[in-house]
């Protein structure tokens, strides 16, 4: 059993990477904003430590396990799901509130029941594992009902961190796409959620849309035998979160327009449309919960034209946690995005390495998704062109993991030029893995 001591609250820092120089008449300013939190729970290399004395009331977790009929094909799938959920329960820190939900065309409380959450200790962890052993497969799939039950249970706890882990093996066939979207809209901002698809009979865009809407991770576990290790990692990561509902607050001066804000590492996530107004010329972009980690964001703004030699503050980026009364707690870190107009052509035409790298990574994710969609639609030439461009971008940026996944879908003739041929036969798991992980990025080479 992994016993993780409760980490301390992290400290945040903001670094801005940009070329602030614009030519005469230039108006577009691009910056990569790196946000780092340190001093919280370091999960990547977490070591076993004694549990602190007393309860830890800071977090609540809902585990949603697909129990639809397809989980019995093969029977090892349900068994692996039970074992994986048990492993995740074992990773819960003492004092964390938790519940297990069985999901079919309806959502059922598996443990503890009665519309409440259990508090993790040796006894409740054992009781939860006993309840898991009784899980069996049967029924349909209506994921929106699972999420709504998780929301009701999680909201009953007076905690800072609310998190869900969702496992499915099939398509969401027993409710409409509109019902699922309504559930996601209702749950967004109320808890974060990691989503996993097991096997190859589920819909990638459904699972990734759940994780995206709820600011969590999405992945495929093609072999059910890998579930326990994956669930353990997810729970360890959830146990390391210390600050919830962190928002990237972007202030811009009069006359300046924000063109887009997107997360670009560790994955590409569009945030522009999620802005909430935060006072004069400021808006908040949600980033979810944080532990001990670092993420990169691409901020692009359009500034008013100015004369040579002039300079201005194009944007100010800070980190805040919105409060129930409408105010916001500032986390004490900020970065400045500048614009300086110059007639030095060398300065004004230089592209910042971080900006160039992440522009390529975002294009890589888009090229993979478009290429796979074209392949499914039977457009061989279009798919070949898009996936060839993806191979070229993956090679140029050093994204070796994505390059390996692409090589299972296309035969690479020349990576440097993006010359490829579509493979005649592609394993479904390989195609789904590429699509699910298409938004994963690598950081710029130092």
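^ Assign residues to that structure.
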């Amino acid at each position: 059993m992994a016993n993780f001591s409760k980490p301390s609250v992290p400290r945040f820092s903001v670094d801005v990477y940009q070329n602030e120089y614009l030519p005469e008449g230039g108006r577009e300013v691009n910056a990569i904003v790196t946000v780092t939190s340190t001093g919280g729970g370091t999960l990547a290399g977490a070591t076993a430590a004694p549990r602190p004395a007393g309860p830890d009331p800071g977090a609540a977790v809902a585990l949603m396990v697909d129990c639809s009929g397809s989980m019995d094909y093969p029977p090892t799938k349900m068994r692996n799901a039970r074992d994986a959920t048990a492993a995740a329960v074992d990773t819960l820190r003492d004092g964390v509130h938790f519940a297990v939900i069985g999901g079919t065309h309806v959502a059922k409380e598996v443990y503890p029941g009665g519309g409440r959450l259990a508090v993790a200790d040796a006894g409740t962890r054992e009781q939860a594992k006993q309840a898991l052993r009784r899980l069996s497969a049967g029924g349909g799939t209506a994921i929106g009902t699972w999420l709504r039950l998780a929301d009701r249970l999680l909201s009953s706890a007076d905690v800072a961190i609310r998190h869900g882990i969702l496992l499915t093996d099939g398509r969401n066939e027993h409710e409409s796409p509109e019902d699922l979207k309504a559930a996601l809209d209702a749950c967004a901002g109320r808890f974060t959620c990691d989503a996993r698809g097991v096997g190859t009979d589920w819909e990638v865009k459904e699972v990734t849309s759940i994780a995206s809407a709820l600011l969590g991770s999405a992945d495929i576990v093609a072999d059910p035998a890998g579930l326990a290790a994956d669930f353990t990692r997810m729970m360890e990561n959830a146990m390391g979160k210390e600050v919830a509902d962190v928002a990237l607050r972007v202030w811009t001066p009069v006359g300046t327009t924000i063109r887009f804000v997107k997360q670009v590492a560790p994955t590409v996530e569009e945030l522009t449309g999620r802005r909430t107004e935060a006072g004069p010329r400021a808006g908040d972009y949600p980033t979810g919960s944080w532990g001990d980690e670092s993420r990169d964001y691409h901020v692009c703004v359009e500034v008013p034209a100015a004369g040579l030699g002039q300079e201005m503050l194009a944007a100010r980026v800070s980190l805040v946690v919105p409060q129930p009364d409408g105010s916001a707690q500032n986390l004490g870190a900020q970065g400045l995005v500048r614009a300086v107009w110059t007639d030095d052509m060398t300065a004004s035409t230089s592209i910042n390495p971080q900006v160039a790298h992440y522009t390529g990574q975002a294009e890589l994710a888009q090229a993979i998704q478009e290429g796979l969609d074209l392949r499914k639609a039977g457009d061989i030439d279009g798919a070949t062109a898009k996936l060839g461009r993806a191979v070229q971008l993956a090679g140029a940026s050093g994204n070796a993991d994505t390059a390996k996944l692409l090589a299972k879908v296309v035969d690479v003739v020349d990576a440097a030029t993006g010359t490829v041929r579509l493979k005649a036969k592609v394993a479904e798991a390989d195609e789904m893995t590429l699509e699910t992980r298409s938004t994963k990025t690598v950081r710029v080479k130092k």
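The longest strand covers residues 328-341.
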